[in-house]
């Protein structure tokens, strides 16, 4: 029988093996070429891959249609893939010249695909377009680099937030949003009003752990990205808080879909990502609800955040006309991303947020300076998703389910993450 530690080590080895199979050690590390002005060359068709398979897909399709209508010399063909499939397929597809020219990648994936040579440096492109930190949410812009080179241009920012049923709150004598120092009392009031489990915490809600870890002063890794640190005292405090939500009955044991109970009235409070906003509007149109930044439970405010980033692939640079057309699409879509707010996310581009439409949107409350200054982004570490899956995500699941205590779960997870960090670093050093 394989031990638990042995199983975790095996998972790290398998992840490493799968990753090494897709590393292109000979891929040229050339920057994307910058071109002046609009594209006026022969017609080019761009392949555009993104992970927008939910309600955000139609919104991006609307933006692409508008671009195509405004650029008769360019046709953008959009393909929306499940994120897992996109990241598994993009390396061999680009290597064969049959992948995307432009893609959307999550911020924490840039390092992985930059070091594999799948995506190209954008420093010359952003300089030529005159793009700068002041044009975007500063924290999102800052995170788009790896080893001192830019690989992503942020489309948006999305952060964990609190949602609540205003009618259920009123029946319990409460008004939202909730604060960390009044959280326990609010949960007790909701339970007293007849809601047995007012706040469902599923074992998959690792974004809440990352948020609380930061609020308690901890971090997933050290500043160099070479040492896992989430098993610190801050991590134990964060995971203990999450497990306590189950032990105190706020959440049922083994909760799964935490959004559904808010919709059907069996819960009154939810911590989730902004994709919840269009989902509630579409699937629960009669639900009275509000949204606000995550409660401050620890000594400092803050919440998990990520960002969808535009990237250009190595494939796009094989032909100068395709490269120019890809640059035009990236620039135009970024400047005209106000429509993207319909997907529930916050446009990263300042001019897209500085509109009456965005200011009237639900997520505008998540786009304040205070929120932007307290975002906890995943770091740029090659192989970070494999490390997270076998590391802190597993620890969160075990602790919330009660199969391991928070400290023990995090100790095992941090050890596993450290071994994977060391293995990936050795792999990519070549």
Automatic annotation (TrEMBL):
Transmembrane segments: none annotated. Keywords: Signal. Residues 1-25 form the signal peptide. InterPro entries: Bact_solute-bd_prot1, SBP, TAT_signal. Gene3D superfamilies: Periplasmic binding protein-like II. PROSITE patterns: PROKAR_LIPOPROTEIN, TAT. PANTHER family: ARABINOSE-BINDING PROTEIN-RELATED (PTHR43649), DIACETYLCHITOBIOSE BINDING PROTEIN DASA (PTHR43649:SF12). This is Extracellular solute-binding protein. It comes from Pseudonocardia zijingensis.
């Amino acid at each position: 029988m394989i031990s638990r530690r042995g199983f975790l080590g095996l998972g790290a080895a398998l992840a490493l093996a799968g990753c090494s199979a897709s590393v292109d050690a000979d891929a040229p590390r050339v920057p994307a070429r910058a071109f002046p002005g609009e594209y006026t060359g022969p017609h080019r068709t761009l392949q555009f891959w993104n992970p927008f398979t939910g309600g955000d897909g139609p919104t991006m399709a609307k933006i692409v249609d508008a671009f195509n209508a405004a650029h008769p010399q360019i046709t953008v063909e959009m393909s929306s893939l499940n994120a897992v499939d996109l990241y598994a397929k993009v390396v061999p597809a680009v290597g064969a010249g049959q992948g995307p020219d432009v893609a959307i990648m999550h911020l924490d994936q840039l390092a992985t695909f930059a070091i594999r040579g799948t995506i190209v440096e954008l420093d010359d492109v952003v300089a030529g377009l005159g793009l700068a930190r002041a044009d975007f949410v500063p924290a999102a812009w800052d995170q788009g680099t790896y080893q001192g080179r830019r690989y992503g241009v942020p489309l948006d920012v999305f952060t964990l937030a609190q949602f609540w049923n205003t009618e259920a709150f009123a029946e319990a004598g409460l008004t939202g949003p909730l604060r960390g120092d009044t959280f326990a009392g609010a949960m007790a009031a909701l339970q007293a009003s007849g809601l047995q489990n007012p706040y469902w915490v599923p074992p998959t809600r690792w974004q809440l752990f990352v948020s609380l870890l930061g609020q308690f002063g901890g971090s997933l890794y050290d500043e160099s990205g070479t040492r896992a640190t989430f098993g610190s005292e801050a991590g134990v405090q964060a995971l203990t808080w999450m497990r306590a939500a189950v032990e105190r009955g706020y959440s049922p044991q083994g909760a799964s879909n935490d959004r559904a109970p808010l919709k059907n009235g069996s819960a009154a409070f939810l911590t989730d990502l902004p994709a919840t906003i269009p989902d509630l509007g579409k699937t629960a149109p009669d639900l009275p609800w509000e949204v606000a930044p995550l409660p401050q439970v620890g000594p400092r405010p803050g919440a998990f955040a990520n960002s969808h980033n535009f990237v250009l692939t190595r494939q796009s640079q094989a032909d100068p006309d395709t490269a120019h057309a890809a640059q035009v699409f990236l620039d135009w879509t970024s400047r005209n991303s106000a429509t993207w707010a319909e997907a529930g996310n916050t446009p990263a581009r300042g001019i897209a947020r500085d509109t009456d439409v965005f200011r009237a949107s639900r997520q505008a409350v998540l786009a304040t300076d205070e929120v932007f200054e307290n975002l906890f982004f995943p770091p740029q570490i090659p192989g970070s998703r494999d490390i997270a899956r076998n590391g802190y995500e597993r620890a969160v699941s075990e602790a919330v389910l009660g199969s391991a205590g928070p400290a023990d779960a995090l100790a095992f997870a941090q050890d596993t993450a450290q071994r994977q960090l060391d293995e990936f670093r050795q792999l990519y050093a070549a």
